[in-house]
Amino acid sequence: MNHTCPHRRLLRRAAVLTATAAVVLAGCGSVDGLDAGEPAPSVSVQPRPKPLWPAWSGTSSEAPGADAATHQPPPQALEGLPKLGNGGLGTEDFREILRADPRMKPLADRGEIDRPGQAGLRPPQLTDLTGDKKPELLVAADTESGRSVLAVYTEHDGRVYPILFTAGKRLGIETLGPDLLVRSPCADGGEQAVRFHWDGVRMSTVSDIKNYKKTPGADGSSASPKPTPEPSGGTGPSDGTEPSGGTDGRR
């Protein structure tokens, strides 16, 4: 009788297993999607933040500062102004609006300026920030100390509401889609950029980022640290002093 050597049987079994593994690997689904008939994996529910010390966490699980912004009182309409007509803020004397706003009243009668480095009121701007197809009024003032003040007003049912008040050093103000981007130089040579978005009540902070300029390294090379995000919910650019005001809005 011809008996097969146990060593040869082991070799044949190993070859069969190797071939089977190759077939299985060849039939695996690609990383781009599922093979035909392959069931989709179940969708897992993403975990939500769970505070360890609730008393220190507030009552909101939203972004930092959102809870504080929610608890701010809604803005009140400016008193002493006639009810606006169909033309909205574009037909009203912007100085009259400033005189009706206690925070901007001291700056209302300053002269207009046309370039940086002067003290006075920049030309007022009209742009839609709330998405209602009606422009908001933006007024910025530069002071002798180098600080700037920005106030934004919206109109509802003929009444004027202040929805943003912020201050900083030499403010650069831009629109970013429907949002407002306010830039200010920092004392350390960088730049702070605060983004405001209409939340249905006021222009609230959605991001606050500091960008630091390149500084020479010890070996003569330049180092460029990545932008450092600040907690959202702040009141606007700052040069190290206390904020001159917070954000206001209306319901």
TrEMBL record:
It comes from the Bacteria. Residues 39-86, 107-130, 210-251 are annotated as: Disordered. Keywords: Signal. Residues 1-21 form the signal peptide. This is Lipoprotein. It comes from Streptomyces rectiviolaceus.
